[in-house]
Design goal:
By secondary structure, the protein is an all-alpha fold. 71% of the residues lie in helices and 0% in strands.
Length: 260
């Protein structure tokens, strides 16, 4: 477990960044968090941790002690906030360096207790976490004008976790249409591909967008894959919002007529 003074210092430095962000002082938030990351690395190295997951587990264990106002703070969640802030302030080289450093320290096969889902499964969330960080690296390279390097950096994640359908979808979104089609077709050849329906829908939409209607019509969506495709989830959400809006309008109209 981390020493109390170390955990407290991390909490204070992290909170400084959040406070600056709440005040819309984004550059200052990045400055505070850059100092925090340097401090975390120094503690990590001097304490001989073999992965940042274990460091974070000890940090969270301290924060979960009674009456600690930082009970939900952890490096795992903060990482996304920091890289997003670096993206917002256009500090892209720093964003790349930070994400690459973090990934070298992160072990996607390590099971942190605070990441357990209802099925006792840790792996999927951790690999998705890696995918998000890899996406940040690729996005940064793309914005710096180096699309090829962006693609290559994201391909690393796909090679380590080829069954993650969303990884293939993300990669296709970085590519021009013809190459994206080949990427998605390659994904559909992967055995035990997760989120297969979403990959199929993405390929179908891509075909339609480039006028290949016959190819789009030939795609049969594998509804046995389980779950609901993203586009259908979005449609259901829109329907739900429309129902709420109609109810509110009807209720307001009823009240107006009643009071009138």
């Amino acid at each position: 477990m981390l020493e109390e003074k170390v955990a407290n210092k991390i909490n204070e430095m992290m909170e400084k960044g959040y406070e600056a962000r709440r005040e819309d002082k984004y550059k200052l938030a990045c400055k505070h968090w850059e100092e925090l990351w340097d401090y975390i690395k120094s503690v990590y190295e001097s304490s001989n941790y073999d992965c940042i997951n274990k460091f974070d587990e000890d940090y969270l264990e301290y924060n979960n002690t009674e009456n600690n106002k930082y009970s939900e703070e952890c490096v795992y969640n903060w990482v996304s906030d920091y890289e997003n802030m670096l993206s917002y302030t256009n500090e892209l080289h720093k964003r790349i360096n930070f994400c690459e450093e973090y990934l070298k320290m992160f072990d996607a096969d390590y099971s942190c207790s605070f990441e357990e889902d209802e099925f006792g499964n840790y792996e999927e969330s951790d690999y998705n976490h890696v995918m998000e960080i890899e996406s940040a690296i690729a996005d940064s390279y793309n914005r710096l004008g180096d699309k090829e390097k962006g693609e290559k950096s994201f391909e690393k994640n796909i090679k380590s976790n080829p069954t993650n359908g969303f990884g293939w979808i993300r990669l296709s979104e970085m590519q021009e249409s013809k190459k994206a089609v080949e990427t998605l077709k390659e994904a559909l050849e992967v055995e035990y591909l997760e989120n297969k329906m979403d990959v199929q829908f993405r390929l179908k939409e891509l075909y339609e967008s480039i006028g290949m209607k016959e190819e789009a019509d030939d795609i049969e969506i594998d509804y046995d894959d389980g779950g609901i495709p993203l586009d259908q989830i979005n449609n259901l959400a829109d329907m739900h919002n429309d129902m709420i809006d109609n109810f509110i309008e009807g209720f307001v109209d009823f009240q107006n007529r009643k009071n009138g």
